[in-house]
Write a structure and sequence with these properties.
The protein is an alpha/beta fold. The protein contains 5 helices and 5 strands; from the N terminus they run αααβββαβαβ. The longest helix has 16 residues, at 114-129.
Length: 151
């Protein structure tokens, strides 16, 4: 199965519960909305045909296209969610040290922060791995300056 960043982002933005990710929601509420039992990421995984294995390898969400057997499973997508984008560097480093599979970081920031963080994370990945960020990481940032929360 091939992961599509576009399909993932489309489903994330159109998921009805995603509208609750706003400046009015607390970090605990955002974590529950995204990653709780039957949360947004569980529903998106199901819609894209993946099984979601939470906290395997200390990664928030690990998606694979089949149930594990005695040999384990091949993880297609690694997803980390970080409420505080200022401390997301550690999550980027963790994701980039994992093997094959698409990496996704979901975080929250102010309106003008996306380009700053895209550059910061891109520089970090290029420095460590010598590859452009766009080839290795899907970065999703929710704008918390907007009361409705936009991606």
């Amino acid at each position: 199965m091939s992961f599509s960043s576009r399909a993932f982002c489309y489903l994330l933005v159109t998921e009805p519960a995603s509208k609750d990710l706003s400046a009015k929601s607390t970090p605990k509420e955002r974590t529950a909305i995204l990653g709780g039992k039957d949360g947004v990421l569980d529903r998106i995984a199901h819609n894209l045909g993946y099984f979601n294995h939470k906290e395997y390898l200390h990664v928030d969400h690990n998606w694979c296209d089949n149930m594990p057997d005695n040999n384990g499973w091949q993880i297609d997508v690694f997803i980390e969610h970080e409420n505080n984008i200022r401390s997301a560097n550690e999550e980027v480093l963790k994701l980039m040290h994992l093997g094959l599979g698409q990496k996704v970081l979901i975080s929250f920031a102010g309106e003008n922060s996306f380009e700053n963080y895209r550059k910061e994370f891109g520089d970090l990945i290029s420095h460590l791995h010598g590859i452009p960020m766009m080839q290795s990481l899907t970065l999703v940032i929710c704008d918390l300056e907007n009361e409705k929360g936009t991606f």
